[in-house]
User: Fold this.
Amino acid sequence: MGELVSLTRQSEIAIITINNPPVNALSPGVPEGIAASVESINNDDSIKGAVLIGGGRTFIAGADIKTFESLRSSENRRGAGLLPLLTAIEDSQKPIVAAIHGTAFGGGLEVAMACHYRIAAPSAQVGQPEVKLGIIPGAAGTQRLPRLAGVQKAVEMCAGGNPVGASDAFKAGIVDKLAEGDLLEGAVAFVRELIAKGESPRRTRDLNDKLGDAAANSAIFEAARASARKTARGLIAPLAAIDAVEAATRLSFEEGCRRETELFQQCLQSDQSRGLIHIFFGERAVSKIPGIAKETRVIDIKKAAVVGAGTMGGGITMSYANAGIPVILKEASQEFLDRGLATIKKNYDTSVKRGRFTREYADQRMALITPSLTYDGFSDCDIVVEAVFEGMELKKQVFAELDKVCKPDAVLASNTSTLNVDEIAASTSRPKQVIGHHFFSPANVMRLLEIVRGKATSDEVIATSMALAKKLKKVGVLVGNCRGFVGNRMFAPYQREAQFLVEEGARVEQVDAALYDWGMAMGPLAVGDLAGLDVGWRIRKEYKHLEDPSLRYPLVADRLCEQGRYGQKTGSGWYRYEDRGKGPIPDPGVQKLIEESAEEAGITRREITPDEIIERTIYALVNEGARILEEGFALRAVDIDIIYVYGYGFPAHRGGPMCYADIVGLNKVYDRICDFERVHGAQWAPAPLLKKLAGEGSTFAEYDRARQ
Ligand code: 3H9
Assistant:
């Protein structure tokens, strides 16, 4: 059978084992190996039944996602070649039991459901996560799952994509038995029991009694569509998954499978699946740091400290506590410390109220936090994260103090969002221990951690930071030390264009709506109000001497701040805010201010289309991203994409800004940027790397591949 699939036996029971580490994906050779095993089992009279099991840490984690690119152009479109295998398993004359441990996801669950029975280890998970990749189950998952679990559960699993634990799967009828001891032993015993009882193979495709009636089903589908439109804004796969499950309730099994294949193909051919699959692999790619040896020592972080109990410091402290790491929270005054702790407590209470955490869990996390007004206890901390006010002098002072109190191999991290990490490191006697850990607000929720390497930062500190990010359930992305690092450096021209667009004639809410409708979590002007407009204003003033005075300047943004309109915290910014928690309200006063600023800047206002808003803002990201990439401050284009999706609310289904530019076509993006340069000036000078790749007909993805 080849080494991917092995066939052994325990007297009259055959054992088919899949050996395709790390996750037993259904890569080429695996379906063929299973099919050949099933055939020989049926041709061997001495075999009475079989177990299908995964070798190593899991059952089957699904189809091999790496093959999807070629599948897009493949002739073999029916279930990616899996449907015939599943028919062969189901047609078997001898009972086949799937023995599930680890994960049975996607094609893995589809294989399991084609088996006649399923037994699972209590820790196993099953799921149809395809929608998270922008596709739907394509090997009859949408047809077999409702036959086992009922329509409601099948819709939830196929349209939501979330996994289900073994005991829930058992309750739902997806698995027939939970293994009590050794899984293989339990599975073999289960087959023997079936044979002893004279049970013939039970074929899922023939089970129709859970398919419900038209009236009840139509309410389920209607509610599921309404929920998908709300929670999966703009995504096509969840709706397609619901259509496919609906087909199971209206059509024969074979016709339902055909409908599923059509919908699967439509999704597979979409840009959304390209974007989401790019993000799936990107999330894993960013953890690989060229030049840092695998055996580099990783410091075990057993105790941490955070300096500064403001919004960021509090969120960072919660991240550590949530990861089970004891953490000291230090503030300069009792008042600030009390306020910081009260916010943390309130956040945990809210999570308990919303059912995210149990009271016991929240209390345990709170107990891991030790408030402090001194550096007592810092001497045995493995890491200290500085999260004080964003000012160089203050940060240097804190680091000089940390240098005195921390043990020599402690990691000293700064949560700066813009400041020079080397300058901060120079205030210590150990710059190799210093690194940037740029968290995103709210730090206990947002998944991105921008890890900023200074010129002296040691490999050990980098490797430790990358491993720590995973422990904190963050996606760590290593970046270089330039102004604003990767994320904020790109965000500046993005916001600049949003501000220019309102000066040129777009309404504030029109700019935000265009980007929100395009998929951004929030529009750039509303984000400014949330973050505080004074932050950018202060940075603009601090760095004004570095700016080219001939370049256009966002006058209106300064005018707002001059009037004390700092955003949500002052009740007004680009919008007006009446009650906390209530949304932004368009403000005619701001509109007047914009018109005055435009006049002052000599701008003739005009109609602006949503397309222009998207191109001006998103291509500003792409152009700056290309510069950052060429200058080496990002390791790969995909790192930029991950930063934007996990830190800036960029829609994952667009793949991040660099992947989006690849999808649009770099030559098209480059041409538009040249148009903008002609009309709006030198700020739009195209990045040399973009020009080069566009000229070669290449992509950022190819650029990444060539440098692997
Ligand atoms: C599908 O099945 C469609 C069907 O309906 C059939 C249609 C016809 N393929 O995540 P990890 C790699 S769609 C290829 O770090 P963990 C991964 O890239 C599929 N490769 O481990 C990584 O590689 P590297 C539906 C895969 O323990 C390595 O394996 N299934 C696949 O944290 C380890 O992965 C899914 O969507 C794959 N399917 O988590 C499940 N899966 O070391 C996707 C993983 O080079 N997978 N790799 O970076 C997962 O959710 C997680 O990987 C899993 C393990 C939970 C399984």
Remarks:
- The two ends are 34 Å apart (CA to CA).
